[in-house]
Write a structure and sequence with these properties.
By secondary structure, this protein is an alpha/beta fold. The chain is 25% helix and 34% strand. It is built from six helices and twelve strands. The strands form two sheets. The chain has a seven-stranded mixed β-sheet, with helices on both faces. Strand 2, helix 2 and strand 3 form a beta-alpha-beta unit. It is globular and about 50 Å long.
């Protein structure tokens, strides 16, 4: 079974991660942080670069980092197709040390909490990297699911597609570790492939504690990408912090 962020991953064809959605998310973040024109931005866990590319399109100077080689290859290709110069580096956040500090950093879309295969250790140490990468007073946006609403909405199984090409997803939650496991079975006319994804869910208080331990001050918290305040029913939590 292949890692979810490897070559051929269904993440690269995620039907919900549209250009329109990405644009709306960046609209919100530019105002919420806020980002000054030409700001230097670190995108932690950039994936295939959708946020990095959109920021570069708006003339921000972006570095996207991700530990997965397949994601960095896809991000570079997406930037090239958009005619944009974006710096992407394959590196785990815990191993990244910037040559000069950034004005702002992003960590979005379930990046915090990813758990590698054969381990129950998540990547919460990336918050220390964020702190060390920011200028004094630099801003940080963290988005991730809220545990209880995410569990309420968790479907044990899903199927997408038609008869010849489809994806089946099986999901489970381990209450002892707090880890969600998703197993993807992808079928195409050329064959089939299985992928594996694991991530830890956090409560609001969990995140407040992690940010405080990393030295990051919470300035505001939102119900996802809208101006409503974060509540116990919010499916997504978005925190805006300062160093």
């Amino acid at each position: 079974m292949k890692d979810f962020f490897s070559d051929g991953s269904p993440f690269l064809r995620h039907p919900l991660l549209t250009a329109e959605r990405t644009g709306q998310e960046i609209d919100f973040l530019v105002d919420a942080l806020p980002l000054s024109p030409g700001a230097r931005v670190l995108d932690v866990g950039c994936g295939f670069g959708r946020h990095s590319v959109e920021l570069a399109r708006r003339s921000y100077h972006v570095l996207g980092i991700d530990p997965a080689a397949a994601m960095i290859r896809a991000a570079r290709q997406n930037a090239q197709e958009a005619g944009l110069d974006v710096n992407f580096q394959q590196v785990a956040a815990a191993g990244y040390f910037p040559a000069e500090p950034f004005d702002a950093a992003l960590c979005l879309f379930t990046t915090l909490g990813q758990v590698p295969p054969a381990s129950d250790d998540d990547n919460r140490d990336l918050l220390a990297t964020v702190f060390n990468s920011l200028k004094e007073g630099g801003r940080f946006a963290l988005e991730l699911p809220q545990k209880e609403p995410a569990l309420d909405a968790l479907k044990p199984s899903d199927r997408f597609g038609g008869d010849a090409s489809y994806a089946e997803v099986q999901r489970s939650f381990d209450a002892q570790t707090g880890i969600v496991t998703e197993k993807f079975h992808i079928v195409t006319p050329d064959g089939s492939q299985d992928y594996h994804l694991r991530y830890r869910l956090f409560t609001r208080q969990d995140v407040i504690g992690l940010l405080g331990a990393a030295g990051l001050q919470i300035l505001s918290s939102f119900d996802g990408y809208n101006t409503a305040e974060l509540s116990g029913d919010s499916p997504a939590m978005l925190f805006v912090c300062a160093k």
